[in-house]
Task: structure prediction
Amino acid sequence: MIDQRLKELESRDMVIRKVISDRPVAVTYELTSFGRSALDILEQLRIWSESNKI
Result:
């Protein structure tokens, strides 16, 4: 499931997938500037949900 979600985020240019090694397969994901632009909104949502005990 997480692999599917990461592929979706990559296709929407929110993350960049980087292959570190082929054997064993190791990859990292990094937020793009577009992905980072959502962080303020997500932080406000976190604060709102915590203050409303959701």
